[in-house]
Amino acid sequence: MIGNDVIDIAAARRESNWQRRGFLKKIFTIDEQLVIASSADPERMVWTLWSMKEAAYKIYNRHTGIRAFIPHWFKCTVNAADKGVATCDGLRFYTKTLIEGNMIHTVAVNMPDNLNNVQLISPTAIIKEANLLPYTICQISGQAIAASRSHHGEFDLSVCIASH
Amino acid sequence: MDREQIIGKLKAIVKPYSTNEDAYNHLTEDTDFIKDLNINSANLVDIVLDVEEAFDVVIDNADMEKMLTVRASIDVIESKLV
Asked: What is the ipTM, given to two decimal places?
């Protein structure tokens, strides 16, 4: 399974004030708040951790059918290479975040090896039908494979796990 | 405060975060903040914080988790005001 989340930092600055009193406390665990406070670039860390939670939630939501506003359930750690782990309810999600200019893009998978097989696809390749999770058709096998799309500000990114 | 008064106050709170004007103008208890009003999920935190300020209540995590719709939010606020 796969989930992604993109953040346009310029749009985030217009839409959110992460320094607002109470904001971080509602979303982040104590450990995450410490990581943010000690980061050289707290803003970047806020949105990196947030995108990890959102990407992991997409898989969690698919896996459990639970729909709720639960960012604080996902306990996230991230290393210097922007690879991370999010845990929730005994489930483990593996993440990789790409930061380029104003873009923060996190992809989460439930099997760590799949982080090496993530493929960017065109948003138009994503098929969304009522009561079905988003998927795409593998060009080689013709099979339906799980896909994920995220858009924010000027970014619109879709991913799937390449089967070959 | 009755449900109608709560919904009125809540409607004013969600306005700056809503990006679907049509859905906003037709807001009902069934309205979903993300699916209908197209509210950015990071702004759900702002709605929770705004509700705390406007109604002078404390929303704990268990309450926040439910606040994806107008109905669920009114239920949470109502339970705090009793």
From this structure: 0.93
